[in-house]
Amino acid sequence: MKMAEWKCQDCGKVFKTEQDLLSHELEHVPRYECAVCGEEFKTKEEAYLHEVGKHGRPPATDPVPVKRPA
Ligand SMILES: [Zn+2]
Ligand SMILES: [Zn+2]
């Protein structure tokens, strides 16, 4: 009997468990990081609102997507 394979639709990498695949897929999601505290957000807007709301200032630079090594 063949083991079930969990394959990443983005890069084709194969994992033994669904859990491994799910944690891997997070690496493909672009994130925006707060320059002050490093908190991560899904959108640039969220990151901006966080910096203004929490740190009381607009970010000095645009939040950039954080690309994690696969
Ligand atoms: Zn992948
Ligand atoms: Zn922050």
Automatic annotation (TrEMBL):
The protein's superkingdom reads Bacteria
Pfam families given in the database record: zf-C2H2 (PF00096), zf-C2H2_6 (PF13912)
PROSITE patterns in the cross-refs: ZINC_FINGER_C2H2_1, ZINC_FINGER_C2H2_2
Boundaries of every C2H2-type domain copy: 6-33, 32-59
- SUPFAM superfamilies per the record? beta-beta-alpha zinc fingers (SSF57667)
Task: Report what the protein is called.
Answer: C2H2-type domain-containing protein
